[in-house]
Amino acid sequence: MKAKARKTAALLLAAAFLIAAVSGCAGKEKAESAASKSEGSVVTVKNANGEDVKINGSPRRIVVLPIWGAEIIIDLIGTERVAAVSPWIDNPVTSACAEEAAKIEGRVTSSEAEKIVALQPDLVVLDTFNDFDGSLTATLKEAGITVLTLASPTSFEQIGDRIDTIGKALFVPEKGQQLIEEMNQRLSEVKQKVSGVSKKVKVMFYEDYYGTDGKSTGMLSAYGKGSPFDAIAEAAGAVNVCTAENYSPVSKETVINDWKPELLVVPGIRYDENFNPVDDGGESIIAAIKKDNLLKTLPAVKDGRIVALTEKYRGSTSHYMSYAVEELAKACYPDLFGE
User: Fold this and answer.
1) Per-residue pLDDT for 20 more than 60?
2) Is the dihedral of CA 56, 57, 62, 66 positive or negative?
3) DSSP-derived 3-state class of residue 11
4) What residue spans of 50-172 are helical by DSSP H?
5) pLDDT tens figures, 78-135
6) Measured CA angle at 294 (ends 293, 300), to 5 deg
7) pTM value?
8) Which residues, including other chains, have CB under 8 Å from residue 181's CB and lie 6 or more apart?
9) Could you give all domains of the chain from N- to C-terminal order, each with its CATH number?
10) How many whole angstroms separate alpha carbon 313 and alpha carbon 324?
C-alpha cells in the first residue's frame, strides 16, 4: 500500500508540474500575442486641428514637450518609453511629476528640432503653444516622425478629453479612463461638500509682481472666463469675479471698485535672481499686498483672506489641477471641511 501511495503521489506531483508548465506557456503566449497585436495595430486620434493622426503600434520612444502632456503620459505608462521631455518639468515647485521625470534621460525644447529628430522618436507630443506656427511639426513630419499636437486644456472637460486622446494614442485607453475617473471622483467629492452653500465666496487670482522696493511692477493680469483658474473656482463652488479678457492688463482700481473679491488667491512662488521659481507659500506677495495702501480697502485684505495654493497644482492644466480645487474649496469654506 505504501508503494502504491508513493506512486500515486508521484503521479499527482508530475501532473501538477505539467499543468503549471502548460499554464505558464499559455500565459506567456497570451501576453506575447497581446503585445504583437498592439505592435501590429493602428489607432487614429484627432489633433488640435481636427485632423486624423494615425499611430502604428504602441509608441516606444516618445518625446513630449508640454508639461501637462508629460504629467499625463508619465501617470499612464511610467517613464521607460519616454525618450525626452521639456526641462521645465524638472522643478518640483511647478511640476507634480518632477521626481519621476528625473528618470527620463533626454531634455529638449521646441527650438531644438534637430535634437528631437536625432532621438529617433516614434511619437512626438506637442501643444499649440509649443508649435504655434506649425513649423516644428512640418520639420518632424519631413523626418518621418508621427506628431500629435493638442491644444492646452483650460477646463476639466478638456483635460479629460486630452487624457482620453493620449491614452488611445499610447494604446492604453483603459488606463486613460481610469485616470479620468480618479480626477472626476476628486471633483465630485468637493462638489458634494459645497453643494449646500447659499452664498458663494467671491474669489480672484491676483498675479502681480513686486520689486525689492515693495512696489508693484504693474504686471497684474486677468484670469477670467475660460482660464484654468476660472475652472478651479467654479469646481470649488466659488465665484470668479474677474470679468476682463484673459491675460489682459488689469488695474488695481478695477479690482477695488468693481470686483471686490472676498478671497484673493496669489502665486505660491517667487523668482530668484536667475528667474527660477522658488516656493515661498505666497509669503512675499502677501506681505506686499498687505502694505499696499490701495489694496488695504479690499474685503479679502481687510479680512485676511489671502491664500496661495500649491503651485504645481494651481499652475497645472493636467489632472493634477483637481487638487487645487480641493485646496481652494477648503480656503473658501473651511467649516465644510472641518478646518
Assistant:
1) no
2) positive
3) helix
4) 67-77, 98-101, 113-118, 135-142, 156-169
5) 999 999 999 999 999 999 999 999 999 999 999 999 999 999 999 999 999 989 899 9
6) 100
7) 0.86
8) none
9) 42-171 (3.40.50.1980), 195-337 (3.40.50.1980)
10) 5
